[in-house]
Amino acid sequence: MVNTSATGGYLQPSSTTPAENDPFEDLLGGLIAGISGLARGMVRPRWQPTPPAMPTITTNWCAFGITEIDADWSAATTHIPDGEGTDEVVRHDTVRILASFYGPSAYGLAAQVRDGLWVPQNFEAVRMAGIALLECDRIRTASDLINERFVRRVDLDILLRRAVVRVYPVLNLLSAQGAFVLDSGTVQPFTVTET
Fold first, then answer.
1. Is residue 116 in a domain?
2. Most Cβ neighbours (<10 Å): which of 41, 56, 66, 148?
3. Other Cβ atoms closer than 10 A to 34
């Protein structure tokens, strides 16, 4: 059971948006596949527990991965008094994605994704998930030597921005006790309760 502010101890979020981990990678993979025209199975997360077999040198495909998440200096916390109460913590992340295109059409596919990301209709599903496009412009050649043969690889950096919202079970304050100490030294106790 998750702690609340009434039980004490560390608090874990009761919900988080937007999607993280595999659902976030699925969203990115679908975006790259949709704009590039590659089959979804040929747009793969870069680091997998059991990597699939590498396609042939004549096959066009893409490997992508989140290489960096840079958060703002601080988060904003707002108490939401509805129901028993919660705290909403909002932090903005800048997410760097490296998309590597392989195959004879690698340059064209990288350029197609780079330019297609700026078409509002192409980015709509990602925008609805609370993600904005910051930058996508540099295409780099980074061919790999595999089995004594160069494999064409073209890298594309994509920079996204998203607001991460986490909701914590911080309950409403129902009563409080304290005291005012006056300049004269008189102590004036008080109690406040919810009515």
1. yes
2. 66
3. 15
Asked if the structure places residue 9 within a domain, the reply is no
The domain total for the chain is 1
Cα separation of 106 and 60, whole Å?
Answer: 7
Which segments of the chain are extended strands (E)?
Answer: 15-17, 43-45, 61-71, 76-80, 86-102, 131-135, 139-141, 144-146, 149-151, 153-168, 175-181, 187-193
Q: How far apart are CA 145 and CA 61, in angstroms?
A: 17
The residue with tokens 């990678």 is 25
In a domain, 162, yes or no: yes
Whole-angstrom distance between the N-terminal and C-terminal Cα of the chain? 29
Alpha-carbon dihedral angle through residues 27, 30, 36, 42, given to the nearest 10 degrees: 120
**CA–CA distance, 113 with 157 (Å, rounded to integer):** 11
Judged on CB neighbours under 10 Å (0-12, 13-18, 19+), 91 is middle
Percent of the chain with pLDDT over 90: 37
pLDDT band of residue 18 (cuts 50, 70, 90) is low
**Residues 138-164 pLDDT 10s:** 899 987 777 777 888 999 999 999 988
Q: Domain range for residue 69?
A: 15-193
User: Residue 122: phi, psi to the nearest 5?
Assistant: -65, -30
Reference 160, options 10, 25, 2, 56; nearest CA is: 25
- 6 in any annotated domain: no
